[in-house]
Design goal:
Radius of gyration: 35 Å
Shape: rod-shaped
CATH topology of the largest domain: Heat Shock Protein 90
Helix content: 55-70%
Order of helices and strands: HHHHHHEHEEHEEHHEE
Distance between the termini: 33 Å
Strand content: 5-15%
Number of strands: 7
Number of domains: 2
Length: about 350
Amino acid sequence: MNKRLLYWTFQIGGWSVYAAINIFFLIWAGNLNPSQLVNHLLVALFFIVTTHIYRHFIIRWGWLKTPMSRVLPKALTVILILSIINFLYQITILSSLGMFEIQGDLKLPFVLINLFTIIILYFSWSMIYFMFHYVENYNANLRYEASINEMELNLLKSQLNPHFIFNALNSIRALVDENPGKSKNAITQLSNILRNSLQIDKNRLTSFTDEMKTVQDYLELESIRFEERLEVDIKLHPNSDQFQIPPLMIQTLVENSIKHGISNLKEGGIVQIKTEVDGLYMTITIKNSGQYVNGQDYKQSGYGIENTKQRLRLIYGDQASFDIRNENNQLVCTQLRIPQIV
């Protein structure tokens, strides 16, 4: 149903219900006569016309795009004017139908009660109309922000795959001359990683278990190249599999650890991955041999750290955190804290 049809359905239907309620009570009291029936139908028609004109000026004056605090005083003034006009119109109808004597029946209590009732009706119509559009605009803004976030996430993911493939191919190239047999195994590992990558690249989030399969394949691939120079230590909390994370996030950080930590050390080093679960939050700690000096080396990693920060912000907002620092003069510590999406 389009907006215009929806508006007229509620506009005519709502005021018709108002007239029907008044007529029902007159029937229930046994006081309904043709003049009263005509009166209530004409009043309902007047409400339809005046509120429609009111809507025209609401749109023309741009009130739907103006803060409510600025619109409210103006709207109340218009409502009061419309209520007075409506009241005078009803008096005119009643008088013309012989149901009302202006000279004798127009007393202050009657005026105040009827005027207040009309004000409430116009005010209620205004509240419903404004709230409908404010909620609609709010939902539209949410959809717009969600689409922008999704576009950014897709861009970030598209940046990761070429970056990872480039590094993996470099590792295999180094093995071809040194050890052809191991290079074949490395190609098998790479095919497994790419298969997983293609599967999870379609998703905004992936299970922690699937992510770690990719990480372990990557570490096995790098272990072939580094041999005894690379030591791996993985300790995962049993409840880690209950969490979902952005695809390739841990793999990218581990890749940075090896490229900018282990590979720069003649004696090699260690990569440690540990998870801790505290209620609805999981902390992922990645430690590697090396030093993080003012972020210079890690900025050269292209997309690793900044990519991770942006993806965490887009998906989790301020519920997630990221930190990278030197734990001592031998280890770099990268730590993420993410919530469980339920």
